[in-house]
Amino acid sequence: MTKQNSNDLSDDEIFMTVKEAAEFLRLKPCTLDLYRCEGRGPEYRKHGSRVYYTKAALIEWSENHRFQSTSQRIRKTK
Q1: What CA–CA distance (Å, rounded) separates 50 from 68?
Q2: At residue 63, what are phi and psi to the nearest 5 degrees?
Q3: pTM to 2 decimals?
Q4: In angstroms, rounded to a whole number, what is the distance separating the alpha carbons of residues 55 and 17?
Q5: Of 33, 26, 28, whose CA–CA distance to 51 is shortest?
C-alpha cells in the first residue's frame, strides 16, 4: 500500500496505486485503466498525474457488479 502521513486513516481510506488496486480486484492494471477511461471503473482520485483508489471505493464498485446469472444483476436491498 502507498504510505501516507496521517495515522488517522482507516484501511478503507488508504490510497492504493493502480497496480495495487488491480491486484486487489484481481484485474490487470491496463483493464482498470480502460475502465477508468470509459467511465465504468471504480471511483478514483487524481493527485497531479497520479491516480489513486481507496479500498472502500473498490469494494463498493465490486458490490455494484454482482450477478446471479449471466442475464440478471443482483439488486441491492436497503
Answers
A1: 35
A2: -60, -35
A3: 0.77
A4: 11
A5: 33
What is the CA 24 to chain-centroid distance, rounded?
Answer: 8
**34-37-38 Cα angle (round to 5):** 85
Return all residues near 41 (Cβ < 8 A) that are at least 6 apart. 32, 34, 35, 61
DSSP string, the chain: ----S-TT--GGGSEE-HHHHHHHHT--HHHHHHHHHHT-S---EEETTEEEEEHHHHHHHHHTT-EEETTEEPPP--
Q: Report residue 36 as a C-alpha cell.
A: 477508468
Q: What are 8-48's pLDDT values in tens digits?
A: 667 778 999 999 999 999 999 999 999 999 999 999 999 99
